[in-house]
Model the fold of this input.
Amino acid sequence: MTNKLEMTEEQQQEWVREHYLKATKYLAQKGLVAESVADTESRYLIPLMAVWKINLLDKTKVWVICGDLPTDHLVLEENESARNVLRHFTFKWQIQADKLLKSDTQEQLDYAKLLMTKAEGLYQLYAKDEIWA
Done:
């Protein structure tokens, strides 16, 4: 994996653009149309992950996570910080993984393990105060 420090400013900006497009494409595949992004509330840790607060055309606000992990979204009624949103994703993925572990297909079992691993990693990022200072 490429380290952020090994990337030029231009490469970092390209990574951010690429992952924003990935997030909006994901939403479009779910039938959700992005209107704008809340830049000041969105966060990214290049090259690990980006968490975007996106305003939809219907005025709903969603959080989308993407990067070196599954792309996913949440609709939160409360005005949460990006840090707390990571915690919500960890809970969501743990619940999904628990359900998938009851499956008898190897593909779903493998995905459950991936979700558990990524949820643990997200929680570690959530817990690091120095990242969020």
User: Anything to note?
Assistant: The chain has a mean pLDDT of 93.
